[in-house]
Structure formats: structure tokens, C-alpha cells
Amino acid sequence: MFTKILIANRGEIACRVIATARKMGIATVAVYSDADKEARHVKLADEAVRIGAAPSRESYLLADNIIAAAKQTGAQAIHPGYGFLSENEAFAQRCEDEGIAFIGPKAHSIAAMGDKIASKKLANEAKVNTIPGYNDAISGPEQAVEIAKGIGYPVMIKASAGGGGKGLRVAFNDKEAFEGFASCQNEARNSFGDDRIFIEKFVQQPRHIEIQVLGDSHGNVIYLNERECSIQRRHQKVIEEAPSPFISDATRKAMGEQAVALAKAVKYQSAGTVEFVVGKDQDFYFLEMNTRLQVEHPVTECITGLDLVELMIRVAAGEALPLTQADVKRDGWAIECRINAEDPFRNFLPSTGRLVRFQPPEETMFQSDTAKKLGVRVDTGVYEGGEIPMYYDSMIAKLIVHGSDRDDAIHKMRAALNGFVIRGISSNIPFQAALLAHPRFVSGDFNTGFIAENYSQGFAAEDVPHEDPLFLVALAAYMNRRYRARASGISGQLAGHEVKVGEQFVVVTLGAGGQNVHNAVSVTDFEDLSGSSAVTVQDRTYRISSSATLGQVRVQGQCNGLGFTAQVERGAGKNPLALRIAHNGTQIEAMVLSPLGARLHELMPFKAPPDLSRFLLSPMPGLLVDVAVQPGQKVQAGEKLAVIEAMKMENILFAAQDGVVGKIVAGKGESLAVDQVILEFQ
């Protein structure tokens, strides 16, 4: 067994590998770019080596620097994590040539299966069902259009070396095929150093289901059941679960056996994933094979009780798999939510900056102890006070729960999301909460088009209707009374002028455009010393109790005998006197006033925000890679104005209406802050 390994990656996956290595008594070496000098994975590892500047092409994609770091520290093996060099055939071969074990498949397997064109040809030869398409590299956008028309729209344009949603577009017409080819090629070149593109038929209303496989150097290959990955936004996974609520035992077995046959055809060693698209009649087609550990591997670990990272390390050290197919378990139900640094209310634009607060829900399951179950696990590479840099992907953490069945897992996940406190940057937690509450998700009736179909106009607060909105009002009144009760107990108050707590309040829920809602509320304490109060709103009464202290954002307690977790903080929004209440994805800002104060507040004029329609503002922090217009140029609605690169993705800004460009304020190559002016219209 190895005594020291190097992790050629960053973020949560680097921390994940370190956890298992530590359990196995193996020393670890982290590598880091200038942007990651203070990163969590650097702090956790036994040693750390700088490998270059912040951009990944100048650090994490430099094989020479990583090999040099391994030699410098005496690391006997390298775990590549996912992304970066994890599916790079040349890097795997280089490790082998340098006498360093690659904790992943052999270079020949990566060449055969990591390349989407080659893997599809191999799947055809192995008589695995494949989707119709053009499997050779395409020379240019004109040829892409001709091929797409021959296959029949819609088509999927994919980078051969792509992954994680990068280098992928769906085209429904010639124009989209032409433009999609160019965008895919640019993203693939920048992210993977390989700009080969291919096209295949896009199966409408499909489900994305993948099979986890595991092989060793002794010819053993098994499959570890499936993962349901159909909840995707722009082809990037948002929620994953295991098992799938859709496929039958017979389909599971057939898919698993095909995945194993494919892996055996290339003498596959290590963990890998065979991805399938599954039709409504459970007919399935091979999509691709990921020759690495998947982001969503924890849900498989939860239902099987296996530590996949440990098995990868043992296989790389030459050990045989310690289990057969008959030993593979399927215990309970696991769900994973990807918590990303993006603002769902601003079309999911990237959000970078400092994590002013980062308080995940309490963990009861852990990365390197897969024996624990029926709980909550958090995989993350960040910490409170740390930075989310603009150079890498947007993932903050992976939130994983394990339940006795699917309903139990959904319930656990909703509670865990309620207790996940992130401040300083925006996150997609409200969107995740909305998905988990959606009737079609709860029933298991969804496909890869679920998000596009249900949130075609983007995501807004109205998309997360609370099942009991008066509870939020009641909680605001309850917490406000707790704050006032604490103030009333402060010694040294002037006699006759002490703070009076009171029982009658008006909760003013602040609405956009000054459209506020007033609710008269009474709050009466019980005399049983339980710390609970009866809160009456309209014709409903809520008995609420909580031990939450002043300034504590996460509030846990009971309401009418049922447990709840919510987030409450004062002055978090635009009004410094208001309470912000968040629960089950719904958020309100409310002022809790005396009846007189509420009447006076109604007389306050509403100040409308300034009109910024004359300006093109940067919707995110990022690099301005192109300004597509000139001063004096007439533009039409929908015309491209600028391109911003953030978190490895190109974001194109289009004109919202017809107009004439007046002044270009920001220059190409400039690093932009959120809401920074790029150009001004006349």
C-alpha cells in the first residue's frame, strides 16, 4: 500500500480524497494555485506545493508541475479527482512512465472510453445500444449544420473531451447548430485543450441514468447500481439520487450488465461511470463513459456502504476487489444537492467573493466512514471567511442525505437545506428547495427537461410558494418578541421607562414596489416554563418554541408539535429594521411593529429605484473577453453586446431592446465587478 499520495485537484474533491487517505494512514500532498493558497484542501493535507498562477491552464492543467510536485515530495501515487487532468490519457501515461501510480484507469482505457467518439464506436462493436449520430470530429460550423440536418433536429453538439456541461449545446435549427458549434469549440479548447466536436440525435423527454462500475487489475468488474441524474439545468446536474425512482429491477440488471461488458472490453481498472439515456418505455442507449470518480459518487456510497475512494486507492495499489456482484447492497435512498455559488433569482449568474458566513447543517454521516447511514453529509472545500474565486467552477458544497426510503430522504434534504447558512455570496439553495417541493419531483415524474419546462422564464420568488405562509409571519412575531424580552431584562433601565414587551403587534411584510401586507398578530407566552408562545395570525394559532439565541441565524424549534428549521436575521435586507425569515425556499422581509408604528409606517413614501436601462451592467464578477459593438452602432433586441467569462463558462450579454450604442466604458480583458457599467446607450 502507498504511504503518500498527491491529489492533483482542488476544492471539495481534494478534501474528500484526503479524508479517506487519512483513514487509511496514507500521508497526503495538496497542490494549489495562487488563488488557492489559503484553500481548505491546502490546510487539510500533510504537505502542499504551489503549482502556478490562478487560471487552471497555468496551474491545475500543467502536468509537468504536478509530476514535479509528486517527485519533490516523494508521493508514490496521484489521485486526479474529477475534471482537470482526471481523464487525460497523456497524463495517466506520464504518471506510469515516471513510476508514479495513477489512481484511476490505465491510459489505454481512458483513450478508448474517455474520448466520446472512440467510446461510442467501441460500444457499437460491443453491441451496446447507441444513439444515432455522427461519430467523427467535425471540421467546422458549416459541416455541423449539414450533419445536423441529416440526423434531424433537435441535435446535441458535444465536445469529444467535454464533461460537466462544458462544451455542450442543443440545437433546434440551422442557426443554433452553427452558433452552438463555435461556442462548444471555444469552451472545449479553453477547458480541455481539445476542440474536437461531434453531433448526435437529441432524445426528447429522456432520463439521464448512470451506472457506477468498479474494476481491478485481476479482471474483476462489478456494477454498484444506478444513479438518477435527470434533474439538470443547461445539461449540468443539480440533484442526483440513488436508486432511480423510474427503472425496474430488470432494467437495472440489463443496464448494469451492459456497463460491465463495456468496461471489460477495455480492461477497465478503478471507478468509472457508464451514462445512459433512458426512454419512457425504459429503452436505454449508451451516452458516454466517464473514466473517473463522479461528483455524485456519495449517493452510491450511501446505499452500498462502500468507500469508493478507498477502493480506487486499493485497486491502484494492485489489490483485488474485496466483493463480488452478489455482495453489492442497495440500502435505503440517498439524495445529493449541489450547492453552487450562483444567484437563482438573476438567471443563475455566478456569485463570487468572501463567505462571510458558512454554517452547513450538522453532519451525522462522513466521507471516510460509510458505515454510518440515515443522516446528513456535507462534502465541501470551503470554510467561513474563505473566498470563492472566479477561476473555477461554482460549487460550494455537496449536501447529501440518506433516508429509509425516498420520502424520508426528501424530508431530510428539505430540513438540511433550511439549516444551511451561506452569507456573503448568493447560492442556489432556494432553487433546490423549490425543486424538492415540486409535486412532479416528489412523485418521481420527471426527465432531463424538467427544469426547462417548469422554469422556462427563469426562477423567481413566486416559484417557491410556501405551504403555510402565515407560519413565516408568526415566526417573525415570535422571534421579535424574544428579542424584546431579552432587552427588557437588561439591568440599569430608567425606572418607569423600562422596555415593555407587549403582546399585540402588526407584522408588515415588505413587498416589491412598496406593496406591503399588514397582519395583526398577538403573542402570548405560556406559563409552563417551556419557552413557548401562542402566536395568533388571522384565524390561526401557532404554538412555537425555540432555544435560539440572539444573533443566531439558524433557528430550530417546534411549531404545533412538529420540528422545524428556519433562518432568521435582522437587517439582512434593504431595510435595517426588518427581519428576514427563510423557510422551505421561501423568504420574506418583515417589520414587527406596534399597532401605532404600523399606522405611521403606512404614511411613509416609497422611493423607487433609479432607472438603469441606459446602461449595460455586468451581471456577475468576471473577465470581459469581448465587446461586440462600437460607439454609434445601432443594435436590435437580441443582438450580442459582450461576452464575460466566469467560473469556466462563457456568458453572452444580449441587447434587451433596440437602441444605439453611446459610450464603451469597460475594455476587453478587464476584470469586472457585479453591476459594473460595460457600455452606455444614447
TrEMBL record:
<dbReference type="InterPro" id="IPR011054">
    <property type="entry name" value="Rudment_hybrid_motif"/>
</dbReference>
<dbReference type="InterPro" id="IPR011761">
    <property type="entry name" value="ATP-grasp"/>
</dbReference>
<dbReference type="InterPro" id="IPR016185">
    <property type="entry name" value="PreATP-grasp_dom_sf"/>
</dbReference>
<dbReference type="GO" id="GO:0004658">
    <property type="term" value="F:propionyl-CoA carboxylase activity"/>
</dbReference>
<dbReference type="Pfam" id="PF00289">
    <property type="entry name" value="Biotin_carb_N"/>
</dbReference>
<dbReference type="InterPro" id="IPR011764">
    <property type="entry name" value="Biotin_carboxylation_dom"/>
</dbReference>
<feature type="domain" description="Biotin carboxylation">
    <location>
        <begin position="1"/>
        <end position="456"/>
    </location>
</feature>
<keyword id="KW-0067">ATP-binding</keyword>
<comment type="pathway">
    <text>Metabolic intermediate metabolism; propanoyl-CoA degradation; succinyl-CoA from propanoyl-CoA: step 1/3.</text>
</comment>
<dbReference type="InterPro" id="IPR005481">
    <property type="entry name" value="BC-like_N"/>
</dbReference>
<dbReference type="InterPro" id="IPR005479">
    <property type="entry name" value="CPAse_ATP-bd"/>
</dbReference>
<dbReference type="GO" id="GO:0016042">
    <property type="term" value="P:lipid catabolic process"/>
</dbReference>
<dbReference type="Pfam" id="PF02786">
    <property type="entry name" value="CPSase_L_D2"/>
</dbReference>
<dbReference type="Pfam" id="PF02785">
    <property type="entry name" value="Biotin_carb_C"/>
</dbReference>
<keyword id="KW-0464">Manganese</keyword>
<dbReference type="Pfam" id="PF00364">
    <property type="entry name" value="Biotin_lipoyl"/>
</dbReference>
<dbReference type="GO" id="GO:0046872">
    <property type="term" value="F:metal ion binding"/>
</dbReference>
<dbReference type="InterPro" id="IPR001882">
    <property type="entry name" value="Biotin_BS"/>
</dbReference>
<dbReference type="InterPro" id="IPR005482">
    <property type="entry name" value="Biotin_COase_C"/>
</dbReference>
<keyword id="KW-0092">Biotin</keyword>
<keyword id="KW-0547">Nucleotide-binding</keyword>
<feature type="domain" description="ATP-grasp">
    <location>
        <begin position="120"/>
        <end position="317"/>
    </location>
</feature>
<keyword id="KW-0442">Lipid degradation</keyword>
<dbReference type="GO" id="GO:0005524">
    <property type="term" value="F:ATP binding"/>
</dbReference>
<keyword id="KW-0460">Magnesium</keyword>
<keyword id="KW-0436">Ligase</keyword>
<dbReference type="InterPro" id="IPR041265">
    <property type="entry name" value="PCC_BT"/>
</dbReference>
<dbReference type="Pfam" id="PF18140">
    <property type="entry name" value="PCC_BT"/>
</dbReference>
<dbReference type="InterPro" id="IPR000089">
    <property type="entry name" value="Biotin_lipoyl"/>
</dbReference>
<keyword id="KW-0443">Lipid metabolism</keyword>
<dbReference type="InterPro" id="IPR050856">
    <property type="entry name" value="Biotin_carboxylase_complex"/>
</dbReference>
<feature type="domain" description="Lipoyl-binding">
    <location>
        <begin position="603"/>
        <end position="682"/>
    </location>
</feature>
<keyword id="KW-0479">Metal-binding</keyword>
<protein>
    <recommendedName>
        <fullName>propionyl-CoA carboxylase</fullName>
        <ecNumber>6.4.1.3</ecNumber>
    </recommendedName>
</protein>
<dbReference type="InterPro" id="IPR011053">
    <property type="entry name" value="Single_hybrid_motif"/>
</dbReference>
